[in-house]
């Protein structure tokens, strides 16, 4: 839902704001915009990033006459970082102190902006998710959503659907691996950047994260049962255990991995994204080389 603040369309200056936006001023602005549209000879006029036809202009002024709508728009207008976010999903909003101030705003105001806020948040968050941009996701989720809970699902919906698509694809892969050998797509399933991204998602995604770990477990089962690839199955299970999932599921993954292929002493069981033990640079380089060699051997044996 695209947000349009009428104060960006009307000819409003500081003097007019101090005097107030009364009914006479609004009637005069309505006539001005309709005249501008007629003189343009076009079906719509463009003001900033907004295109307004006759119906949109009439609806704009109808809305302004409803209850506290004008007062809400004025409040948004006086919070520039929020205005920019509602207009263009500008990330600067999350660096501003206004984010916390929004929680202190009246409930009716937060209800008013919720459809626009959730729309822009959903769009920006999903873009960061598709780009594997953990830094941006952490910035956007540093504070809880400041809109009514009824709108939270709308703020997460594209990301949630996309993650569930990945879960379905992983489960479908588990089925197809019963009849064909594993290929390089397994590397994508357990990619460390992807798993780290899942771990920085907020609590709303906890069950989806658990579902992805279960899907990795199903893939590991298929790899072992259909192809007797114990090392590869164990690697899938240990990567699943690095997700931020319930301890019972993590222990089940690790126990099965241990049965298939006992772990080396250096293998970490700490979820990605959590604080882990530090190693000397030389040791880390040796580990990285060893993992690369193991992955090459597993996929080419």
Describe the structure.
With 301 residues, this protein is mainly α. The protein has a two-stranded antiparallel ribbon. Helix 5 crosses helix 7. The radius of gyration is 27 Å and the shape is elongated. The protein is 65% helix and 3% strand. The two termini are 52 Å apart. The longest helix is centred in the middle third of the chain and has 25 residues, at 152-176.
Count up the helices: 15
Give the integer mean of the pLDDT values: 87
The percent of residues in helical segments reads 55-70%
Largest sheet: 2 strands, antiparallel
Strand order of the largest sheet: 1-2
Number of E-type strands: 2
Order of helices and strands: HHEEHHHHHHHHHHHHH
Rg computed from alpha carbons, rounded to a whole number of angstroms: 27 Å
Question: How much strand?
Answer: under 5%
Terminus-to-terminus distance: 52 Å
What would you call the structural class? Answer: mainly alpha
The oligomeric status of these chains comes to single chain
Global shape? elongated
Uncertain segments are: 274-285
């Amino acid at each position: 839902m695209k947000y349009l603040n009428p104060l960006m369309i009307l000819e409003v200056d500081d003097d007019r704001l101090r005097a107030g936006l009364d009914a006479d001023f609004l009637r005069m602005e309505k006539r001005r915009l309709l005249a501008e549209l007629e003189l343009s000879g076009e079906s719509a006029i463009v003001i900033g990033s907004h295109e307004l036809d006759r119906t949109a202009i009439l609806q704009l002024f109808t809305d302004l006459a409803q209850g506290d709508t004008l007062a809400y728009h004025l409040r948004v207008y006086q919070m520039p970082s929020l205005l920019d976010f509602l207009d263009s999903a500008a990330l600067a909003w999350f660096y501003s102190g206004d984010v916390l101030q929004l929680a202190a705003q009246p409930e009716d105001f937060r209800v008013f902006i919720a459809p626009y806020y959730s729309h822009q948040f959903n769009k920006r968050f999903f873009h960061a998710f598709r780009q594997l941009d953990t830094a941006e996701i952490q910035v956007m989720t540093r504070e809880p959503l400041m809109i009514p809970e009824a709108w939270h699902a709308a703020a997460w919906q594209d990301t949630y659907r996309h993650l569930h698509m990945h879960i379905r694809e992983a489960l479908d892969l588990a089925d197809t691996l019963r009849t064909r050998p594993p290929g390089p797509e397994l590397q994508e399933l357990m990619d460390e950047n992807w798993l780290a991204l899942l771990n920085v998602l907020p609590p709303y995604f906890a069950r989806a994260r658990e579902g992805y770990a279960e899907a990795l477990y199903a893939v590991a089962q298929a790899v072992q049962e259909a192809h007797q690839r114990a090392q590869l199955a164990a690697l899938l299970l240990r990567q699943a255990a690095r997700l931020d999932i319930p301890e019972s599921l993590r222990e089940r993954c690790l126990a099965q991995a241990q049965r298939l292929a006992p772990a080396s002493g250096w293998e970490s069981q700490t979820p990605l994204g959590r604080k882990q033990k530090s190693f000397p640079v030389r040791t880390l380089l040796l580990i990285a080389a060893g993992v690369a060699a193991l992955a090459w051997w597993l996929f080419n044996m």
